[in-house]
Design brief:
The protein is α/β, with parallel strands linked by helices. It has two domains: about 180 residues, Vaccinia Virus protein VP39 (Rossmann fold); about 60 residues, N-terminal domain of TfIIb. It is built from seven helices and twelve strands. It has an eight-stranded mixed beta sheet with strand order 3-2-1-4-5-12-10-11, with helices on both faces. The radius of gyration is 18 Å and the shape is globular. It starts with a helix and ends in a 5-residue tail after the last strand. The mean pLDDT is about 95.
Length: about 250
């Protein structure tokens, strides 16, 4: 049930899709998505005619995505269940992406291990593109927020109405976001399914320095998917990085 809830909810927010499609337009060959989940970004890339490899460590998400791929796209999509920190594909990519705020859920050791892995998969002229919530902005939110209804939708499978709420707790280093999906039934009863996501509030300077130390050069920072320049008040932090090719 959760992959369906997650996919239906997050497909309501597609403002970033043109950004990823635009990046793909400037690259040749297949694309690698880290954290492909249920395919919110992967499937539009495939529909645009691109060969896409998707890696995720959640078998339920990958199963949902696998069953969602139309027959005419089946030859364009390859799915791999793997840990970001230990994956190895016998292929190099001109574009590796990590959308959907996944990067900021990784701890420092996992970020470093992930960059080590993807650097080996990135072609000399390649780009690694990652998006996440702006850590500076999250650091300056109140320390706590009670659940608040944000939106609602109906499941495409049976028309079941679902109400979405969120709440958070923030420390100096971690922003913990709780999602609540309330399934509303005609008799007035409610079934709640919850999900918890923790974002590391690593300062931007440290994130960029990590990349440099492991052989990626952060060429461009955006603060939104327009794309506009990154500022401390931007909603997002989007990094485009290229390999430093004189490293081993």
């Amino acid at each position: 049930m959760f992959p369906l809830l997650y996919h239906t909810h997050h497909c309501l927010h597609s403002q970033d899709i043109p950004f990823w499609l635009s990046l793909a337009d400037h690259c040749n060959g297949p694309i690698l998505e880290l954290g492909c989940g249920t395919g919110r970004v992967l499937l539009p890339l495939a529909r645009a005619g691109r060969q896409v490899f998707g890696i995720d460590n959640d078998p339920a998400m990958l199963s949902f995505l696998s069953h969602s791929i139309p027959g005419e796209l089946s030859q364009q999509v390859s799915l791999v269940q793997a840990d970001f920190t230990r994956f190895c594909l016998k292929k190099q990519f001109e574009l590796i992406i990590m959308p959907c705020n996944t990067y900021s859920t990784l701890t420092e050791p996992d970020r470093r291990a992930t960059i080590e892995c993807l650097r080996n998969q990135l072609s000399p002229a390649g780009i690694f593109a990652v998006s996440m919530p702006n850590p500076y902005l999250l650091r300056h939110l109140p320390a706590h927020a009670e659940p608040e209804v944000e939106e609602s939708f109906c499941l495409p499978t049976n028309g079941q109405p679902v109400q979405v709420s969120s709440a958070w707790n923030r420390t100096q280093d971690v922003f913990t976001l709780n999602w609540y999906y309330d399934l509303l039934f005609p008799d007035g009863s409610v079934e709640r399914i919850s999900a918890c996501i923790q974002h590391q509030l690593t300062p931007v300077k440290e994130l960029l320095e990590e990349m440099r130390e492991i052989g990626l050069h952060p060429d461009t920072l955006y603060g939104n998917f327009d794309p506009s320049e990154y500022t401390q008040t931007a909603d997002h932090l989007i990094i485009l990085a290229s390999p430093v090719n004189n490293l081993p």
